[in-house]
Design brief:
This is Family 10 glycosylhydrolase. It is built from 14 helices and eleven strands. By secondary structure, it is α/β, with parallel strands linked by helices.
């Protein structure tokens, strides 16, 4: 960035039924309110972009622009770009190293500014750019010695918890929470992103036979709580509330959204829960009280990952849409639905996902619930491939024209 201030840089960067289609909310001619039509672009392990590490800056830029252009062609209005996949950065962060998914070497300058370019190019196409941050994941391996020498996890080994063959920051340490927020808010200060976005990783998904070792943090900070689970949920609550406040302070008008695993709690665990038999519950396993965040309007939008088909025995898409609509009803938190485009036509999936109309049926059903204000599709690589034409069917049935993104 040279000597340009963050503020100056921010200002410079950019001042239906399947057989009887009908316009979805926000579609052409509908006269309805704006609707979310989004796609995630995952950078972790080069899932969607860049296609591999080590491409030239020009090749990376061309691939990114191709994803943006594809979003426009499919009449989407929002891209959710993963810019902090593993405690690293896709912008020139003073806090964390450049991501290895750009060059193949963590900390190596890629020769351009991916986030700055993404914001400018998305806005030039009428797309919103939501910057997607993973708060606590450090690495998809368990060797701190493989991290860049400058990595904060190497400078502060007491912040790090190895678990399930990976490295995580300890959410129970106030200094970790403060650091994570500084790293995130640096990007918000530099660039006119339309939203900050978290995914489903808070405390990690449980690994059988392993314990997340936060004993020291709990001994120091957990005394006021009834037990470790309540303390962990409070840690995540604090991250959410403090991040929301920080965003409003640094760039007022920027939204804050979260995309959790789709089941808060099964009804067998809590009468307020969904009619599901999911093996994971965010409240108990990731210590993320996602229902509370919606009801208390701590976040501007939520995108539960409802990655199941209609009629799924353990987690039926229809039942979960209805449950989440009930949670969002009467709140100011927007509800969008996360859709499993990646399953459509993929090997090993149930028969429902081999039907190109399955996803279109999802949108038809969701349209019966006024609380659902749109959908986000996982993910960009699958949008481009569209193996069995499932996304083409969604566009034909539900997106007859462009729609304004929600604000």
């Amino acid at each position: 960035m040279g000597r340009m201030s963050r503020r100056a840089f921010a200002l410079a960067a950019l001042s239906t039924l399947a057989t009887a289609p009908r316009a979805a909310a926000g579609g052409a001619g509908s006269g309805a309110s704006a609707a979310m039509r989004g796609v995630w672009i995952a950078t972790v392990v080069n899932r969607d972009w860049p296609s591999r590490p080590g491409l030239t800056a020009n090749a990376q830029r061309k691939e990114l622009i191709a994803h943006l252009d594809r979003a426009v062609r499919d009449r989407l209005n929002t891209v959710i770009l993963q810019v902090r996949p593993t405690a690293d950065a896709l912008w020139p962060s003073p806090y964390e190293p450049w991501s290895e998914y750009l060059t193949g070497t963590q900390g190596k300058h890629p020769g351009w500014d991916p986030l700055g370019t993404a914001v400018a190019e998305a806005h030039a196409r009428g797309l919103q750019l939501h910057a997607w941050f993973n708060p606590y994941r450090i690495a998809n391996h368990a060797d701190p010695g493989r991290l860049a020498a400058s990595h904060p996890a190497r400078k502060h080994p007491g912040w790090v918890v190895p678990y399930g063959g990976r490295l995580y920051y300890d959410p129970g340490l106030p200094e970790v929470r403060a650091f994570v927020q500084r790293a995130i808010l640096d990007a918000v200060a530099r660039y006119p992103v339309d939203a900050v976005h978290f995914d489903d990783y808070f405390y990690p998904y449980p690994v059988a036979g392993q314990t997340f070792d936060d004993d020291d943090a709990y001994d120091r900070h957990g005394g006021a709580f009834s037990g470790r689970a309540a303390w962990r949920r409070d840690n995540v609550d604090r991250l959410v509330q403090e991040t929301a406040a920080g965003i409003k302070r640094v760039r007022p008008g920027t939204r804050f959204g979260i995309s959790p695993f789709g089941v808060w709690r099964n009804a067998s665990s809590d009468a307020r829960g969904s009619d599901t038999q999911a093996g994971v519950e965010t409240y108990d396993d990731m210590h993320a009280d996602t229902r509370k965040w919606v009801r208390n309007h701590w976040i501007d939008y939520i995108v539960p990952q409802l990655y199941w088909h209609l009629g799924n025995a353990a987690a039926d898409y229809a039942k979960l849409v209805e449950w989440w609509a009930g949670v969002a009803e009467g709140t100011r938190t927007h509800l969008y639905v996360g859709e499993a485009l990646y399953r459509a036509g993929a090997a090993g999936q149930p028969a429902a996902w081999r039907d190109p109309v399955e996803l279109s049926r999802h949108l038809t059903l969701a349209a019966k619930h006024p609380q659902v204000r749109g959908h986000v599709f996982f993910a960009a690589k699958d949008l481009a491939a569209d193996r069995i034409g499932a996304m083409a069917r969604v566009v034909a049935d539900h997106y007859p024209g462009p729609a304004k993104p929600p604000r």
